[in-house]
Amino acid sequence: MFPPEVADRLGDVAPRLFDEVDAMVDRMVDVLLRTEPAYRELDLVELRRSSRAGLAGGIRSLVGAAGGTRELQTAEAREVGRRRAAQGIPLEAVLRAYRLGGQITWETLLAVARTSGGPNDTLLVEVASAVWRTNDVECGAVAEGYREEQRRLDSVDDDARRHVLDGLLDGRGGDPAFVRSASELLGMPLAGRLLAVVAVPDGEGTASLLDPAAGLLRRGMRSVWGERSGAQVGVVALGPRRSTDVLGWLRAVAAGPVGVSAEVEGATGVATAYRLAETAARTLPVGTSQVVTIDDRLPEALLSNSPEISSRLVGQCLGGLLDLPEDEQTVLLDTLAAFLAADGSPTRAADELYCHRNTVMHRLRRIETVTGRKVTDPRARLLWQLALLSAPQLRPARPAA
Predict the structure, then answer these.
(1) DSSP class per residue in 281-342
(2) Which residues 6+ apart lie within 8 Å of 356 measured at CB?
(3) Which of 70, 138, 169, 393 lies at a 20 to 30 A Cα distance from 28?
(4) pLDDT exceeds 60 at position 399
(5) How many Cβ atoms from other residues are within 10 Å of residue 11's Cβ?
């Protein structure tokens, strides 16, 4: 508690201090990246988000902007400690970062006070002890959370993680006791928004994702990974991040087919999410480096779950084409795919294929003769499209522009 005159002066200055948070974050991130090599491994978005939360929370604690702020800030500092331990950031570097936050907060407070034109700025000297006292409390919480996470990591082996992941994938997410123990063992929340990811090995059997848990953790997202049916399987806790953040990172690093589920709420949905992610991954041709969500592949997913129907669909709709010599078959399938992609426009298909419209028309008549279906028939076009989706290997590779 401050004397009334100090509290009043701090109340005048505090709103301006909140206005400086962006500049404070810029300064803190700049110093950390220049002076702390370990922090250069973190995702910049996650580092800025964490820095902003810490600085803004420290200001709220200082001025008492909300009841229970100190307890909340201490809990958040403890969580930062846990996360940095899991990310492999040395404790000394984490504590220096928190000290830097306290220094930036104090220097910004003095600068704002000097420019505000108010009286009795010397009274703000009394606030200095509160700044560093708050900083000391947060550093203690960071160290406590850091050591808790280290002890947890030391006590958990890979077999235990695999056992827990298998339980989640097999549908044990509806058992509250299992979920509690799983969350504690994994050190990740299982009550919020979750995603499942399945990564199929590339054409040579090499894993599609390299150390995905570490890559996601550097972006502030906890996850657990294992292997099923030769594929990498992961469950990701999104926290405050969006599923598009996960997709963006996966697309930047994937070396093979990767399927991603829709978001599910809590552990009860993990088994379903896994099945959706696996289905999405299995719709992609082996050897491609592509990341898709189940919503991107709904028609393919439906067809892949009915292989007998898919095989019959291809045979009935494209059978005649598949009996042709390879060169002619390739040309006609390429023309059919371009025609369907152009919404049935021969002109646009010709532009895509770099040929004359009359050439496309001639090929389409040949397709009609061979398949016994009319290009003007909407149902025929639907069946052809589904047949090509059922057998992606039939889609000829498009030439580079």
Answers:
(1) HHTSPTT---EEEGGGGHHHHHHHT-HHHHHHHHHHHHHHHHTS-HHHHHHHHHHHHHHHHT
(2) 350
(3) 70
(4) no
(5) 12
Please give the DSSP secondary-structure letter assigned to residue 88.
T
* Whole-model pTM over 0.70: no
For residue 258, pLDDT over 90 is answered with: yes
**For the stretch 148-167, what's the b/e string if a residue is b when 16 or more beta carbons lie within 10 angstroms of its beta carbon?**
ebeebeeeeeeeebeebbeb
What residues form DSSP beta bridges with 258?
Answer: 199, 291
379 φ, ψ to 5°?
-65, -40
Residue 226's beta-bridge partner residues? 233
Residue 291 one-letter amino acid: V
Q: Report residue 127 as tokens.
A: 């606030």
Alpha-carbon distance 373 to 321, whole Å?
Answer: 12
Closest listed residue to residue 110, CA positions, set 130, 124, 129: 124
Structure tokens at 299: 């028609």
For 188, other C-beta atoms within 10 Å of its C-beta total 21
| DSSP letters spanning 237-283 | E-TTS-HHHHHHHHHHH--S-EEE---EESGGGHHHHHHHHHHHHHT
Across 127-146, average pLDDT? 83
**What confidence tens digit (pLDDT) does each residue in 241-252 have?**
889 989 999 998
Given the DSSP bridges, would you call strands 291-293 and 258-260 parallel, antiparallel or unpaired? Answer: parallel
Is 232 buried (19+), middle (13-18) or exposed (0-12) by CB count in 10 A? buried
Closest to 43 in 3D by CA, of 246, 295, 223, 185: 246
Angle (CA) 375-317-338 rounded to 5° is 50
- Higher local confidence (pLDDT), 397 or 33: 33
Note the pLDDT of residue 121: 61
Q: Which of 263, 267, 298, 268 is nearest to 280 (CA)?
A: 298
